[in-house]
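Lecture notes, unit on protein representations.

Consider one protein chain, 335 amino acids long.
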Amino acid sequence: MLINSTFALLRALYDIYLSEQINFASLYTAFIGYFKVMNVFGFALAFTYLFLSRGPDVKLDLSRILMIGIMSFAISAPIVFFIFNWSDNQTHPIIQALVYSSSAFLSTTWAVIVMAYVQNRESQPKFQLIKQKYIEQFKVREQTELELHLLQAQIEPHFFFNTLASLHNLIDIDAEKAKYLLEELTEYLRSTVPVFRYKFVKLGEEKEMLIRYLSIQKVRFSNKFDFDIQIPKELEHLPIVPMSLLTLVENAIKHGIEKTNGKGNITISCAMTNKKNIKAIVSDSAGLYTASNNGTGLENLKSRLKITYGDDAALTIKALPEKETLAVLEVPVYD
């Protein structure tokens, strides 16, 4: 509109100069006339371009450019006919409107040329490059998510089969405990298995999984340990990788509680650091875990953290022999 208005002003100034009737009223009348016509054609060209163009990734050929010009003229000419009063009795008003429209249309054909040039020489290659980058990024993301789902799928049978083995042992020893364990396991699987398919779960959902898991394990180990979960209510809505804390707890039982002779304690605590990261600490009182104890579950967790957070996540194991083992997980908070 700004360009067309500028052309309208220049055309009006030129007409006033030729007519030698230089006054504001004549200039204003001429400017308004050209302003209407040129903007009618400008918007008609824009509309037909959007309607007939097949997108920035398809080159505009000559036939389509001609179609844009013809269609925009067909739209504009009737509008020009009705917005002016054609008072010349020597020529039919329709002929006057068509002649006037043709001259105005020719003065705006530069717009068609510019649109075709920009699309064919500038927009199309850039669009193709952006499109290719998007496709490549989509494939990488799809592959990454597939790897993540495969890693998470490996966790489910691992825990499930371990629990079934415990259940098998309890059947002959204590039928009532075996029944209770089976009920707990059924409820655990019913409520948590669907969660494993997601990239993130709420920290509160992870907390519920921990409670169910530890309750099952207490039955298995005949109350050989106590546990305490300290996850504030205000943090329960935050997202975290599914079964990340549970994997650390599982390792604490496998490498700590299971191998100690006395009664142990497991503590899980979470807090925010600088309002950007979740810091989770899993502590077991056995203090038997060492760096050489890295098993499939822990390596799986490290892979999932790497896929999900890149280098923004940190997992460290701090062992104080015969005293305590701390597993410290720190992950960023994603919206």
